[in-house]
Every structure is written in structure tokens, then in C-alpha cells.
Amino acid sequence: QVQLVESGGGLVQAGGSLRLSCAASGTILSINTMGWYRQAPGKERDLVATITSGGITNYADSVRGRFTISRDNAKNTLYLQMNSLKPEDTAVYYCNADLNVYSGWVRRRTYWGQGTQVTVSS
């Protein structure tokens, strides 16, 4: 029953901002590293940013300085603040989480959200 539910995607003009959210729900014992990935049409899914349970962040060069990844451990929620958006940022953004869950016993699994479309117009 564990799932990641994303929200916040949409259409925005170049230079604008969006804030993506990813809420993890289910029998979650703890959350390890979480991250955002994106995939443009006809391209591979690429890493955007990650954040460890200790708050250490990592960003793709293409978004560093414009995007900020954060997490609210009390709410089991991941965020991606996207500023100064460019048309090249247009993609489906996926939430990823490495979780320790309970399904009869403790399991460590990687989960993906359904993806949320971000479209940046010029």
C-alpha cells in the first residue's frame, strides 16, 4: 500500500516558478534518500536532485542554483522548488524514494511516483 503521490506540476512561462510535492504514504518505517528525476519525450530519465535522510543534497549541473530540493520528514513529503524555469526544463518529473517499509516484515525498496508534467513555455 506504499505509494508516492506527486502534485504541483503544470504550465508556466519561462522565468517562472513551480513547487513540486511528493507525499509518501503507507506503512513506512523510515525514509532514506529521496530524489527527483525527469524525462523529456524521446530522452532518458535523468537525475535532477537528491537529498539524504541527513539533508545532504545533490543537484544536476543543469539545475544547480535554480532548483532546491527539501524534505519534511514529519510529513513524509519531498519538495522541489523550481525557479527561473527554462523551456529545456519541460519534462515529466518523477519522485523517487528509498524506503524501509513493512509488509509482513521490514523491507527496503525503491518507489517511484506516477510522474507530474512540467511544461515551460517560451
Form type: elongated
The major beta sheet can be summarized as: 7 strands, mixed
Sheet/helix structural class: mainly beta
Radius of gyration: 14 Å
- Strand percent estimate: over 45%
- The strand count comes to 11
Distance between the termini: 40 Å
What is the gist of this entry?
By secondary structure, this protein is mostly beta strands.
What topology emerges from the helices and strands here?
Layout: E1 3-7, E2 10-13, E3 18-25, E4 28-39, E5 46-51, E6 57-59, E7 67-72, E8 77-82, E9 91-102, E10 106-112, E11 116-121
Label this structure with key terms:
11 strands; 4-stranded antiparallel sheet; 7-stranded mixed sheet; 61% strand; mainly beta; 122 residues; elongated
Structural features, described:
The model has no long low-confidence stretch (mean pLDDT 96). Strands 2, 4, 5, 6, 9, 10 and 11 form a seven-stranded mixed beta sheet that branches. Strands 1-3-8-7 form a four-stranded antiparallel beta sheet, with no helix packed on it. Helix content is 0%, strand content 61%. The protein is elongated and about 50 Å long. The N and C termini lie far apart (40 Å). It is mostly beta strands and 122 residues long. The relative contact order is 0.33. The chain is built from no helices and eleven strands. The chain has strands at 3-7, 10-13, 18-25, 28-39, 46-51, 57-59, 67-72, 77-82, 91-102, 106-112, 116-121.
